[in-house]
Each structure stands twice: as structure tokens, then as C-alpha cells.
Amino acid sequence: MRVVAMSWSGRDQTVIGPGLWYTSNYAVSWTCLARTNFNYGNYLMSIAVSSTGQYQIAGQMSGNVFLSSNYGVTWSPTGLSSSGVWESVSISGSGQILGATWSMTGQSIANYIFISTNFGATWTQASAPSAVWGALSMNRVDLQL
Q: DSSP state, 37?
């Protein structure tokens, strides 16, 4: 398993490994959510979960940013698509505010930050310098750069 994201209580967890896995019972049992939905030639790189686990965001290498609003059961592309890498994704506690950092393929640092304040319906590039953005995180309320 490469990346783990969990809800505030730890009850709901999503894991990127060989496939995308989810538990809603504190890791007692797991369900495979997707092995092919994300075009696994383009591996998932990052994932984040809202405080309840209902809203989730995942970023791909050479692909898209995907959202789920039903505990990871189904996923939809956001429209943020590139040949670069979605290095880091983040989500607020409510799931309303989302962020994603993007880098050009072959670099290990993110060059741009994209933000949504409406559950991923629309995205804007943050007015931050095109520079070294290694990670993005949010507290339960808002974005923290």
C-alpha cells in the first residue's frame, strides 16, 4: 500500500495500493473500489478524505483528478487533466474546499496549485508563484499553504 487517507474518526479509510481499497469499519474488512476506473496505466499518486469519509479526491500520474461524493463507491473526473503528475491533493473537513498540486512529468516538486471552493464543480489556479510546492494540506475548515 502506497497512500492511506482516513476520516477524522478513523472509521472510514481509503488506500491506494494494487487497486483502490475502502473500509468503513476501522480496517476490519476491506472492499476493492476500483482497479480499472482510473486507467491504471496512469497510477494514482495521492488521495484525501473529508472528515466523514463521504467526500474523497484522488490524483493521478499523467492523468486526472477524480472525486467521489459517496464514500468512494463511484468516481468522476474533475476536468483537471494533464500529462503531468498530480503530486498532492487535499480536502477540507466538509469536502467543500479541495486543492491539488501539479508538476511536470519527471519533476518531484509541484509547480502549480489548483483550488475548488464548491465541492469540485469548478477549479481555479491559485495566485501562488510557480515554484516549489511539495504538499498541500487543509484543516477541518480551510486551505493551508
A: T
